[in-house]
Specification:
The structure is a homodimer of 187-residue chains. By secondary structure, chain A is an alpha/beta fold. Chain A has a single domain, classed as Rossmann fold (3-Layer(aba) Sandwich), CATH 3.40.50. Chain A is built from 6 helices and 5 strands; from the N terminus they run E-H-E-H-E-H-E-H-H-E-H. In chain A, helix 3 (86-97) runs parallel beside helix 5. The mean pLDDT of chain A is 96.
Chain lengths: 187, 187
Amino acid sequence: MKKPLKIYLAGPDVFLPNALEAGNRKKVLCAQYGFEGMFPLDNKIDDPGEKRPHGFRISQANENLINECQLVIANITPFRGPSADAGTIFEIGYARAREIPVFAYSNTAVHFRERTRFFFRLKPDAVTDRNGMKLEDFEMTDNLMIDGGILASGGIIITREVPKKELYTNLEAFEECLKAVKKLKKH
Amino acid sequence: MKKPLKIYLAGPDVFLPNALEAGNRKKVLCAQYGFEGMFPLDNKIDDPGEKRPHGFRISQANENLINECQLVIANITPFRGPSADAGTIFEIGYARAREIPVFAYSNTAVHFRERTRFFFRLKPDAVTDRNGMKLEDFEMTDNLMIDGGILASGGIIITREVPKKELYTNLEAFEECLKAVKKLKKH
């Protein structure tokens, strides 16, 4: 029997109060589509007892886990600012450079420029932020390196609006990604 | 004569009102240390007349420029939130996966956890944000993937406090990175 495609599950889901459960929900959905979901918190990390060395071990384990996967599905829902979670963005760039396709979803459909204006309460026609620094205006979901890297990798970005309280838990767009991967893998 | 080491200059500097001038200041400093600084805005991009295709061209040109470089110096000063600029984070992950050393600097020396608390006006002992999502607590400069990726790449992170109005323009920590690279290349 063919081994199932391994998918690295990137996203701020690891910060949810019930992160392991949230990861399991994604892994169950992956299995329904014939894939194996790999969640960062699955890594068994020995806690060296000090914060920084502990963090570095997690970082290396996550990099290694991406290397083991054939695909990434990234949750790029804006997190603590107008852009996706910082760790997730790093992982998208990392996977892109390794030529691993990245599929992504965001639980908001608002463009990056509008989100940035809204987040910082800028005027609707603002072209710079309050520091005088330019706003990106490329009708993209996030910074152009993110949208560009995902599309160049062979992936797609699926966006949709969800009820506010489901911003970090709604998995409909995630499941759309799984369907898109399934379709791709049939060809 | 040996070709100078090419350094990709990543950072939100591209959003400064006088971005080309800011890039040139960095390139002049690079040259003083015997390196060739490559600034993203140096890329000649034909504007296809539509925003999204234009953005994708910039993204591809930046990826190609990183591929040409032997080293990255990234400005990870927090930008529009507690973390570094999204495009810069993507580029750090990208370079890391290509085994290109990444040196980084931040014009604030405050740890990521404290910055996140401050940015969102959380209590000093908060362990989650207002959405109940966990705060990282690894005594790092930014998300652990960023600090971890940079250190694993062979690079270092230099942080220092600068006057607030120089947050995105002060180049002292940038120059410290150049000195560190110079030292490394002598061995």
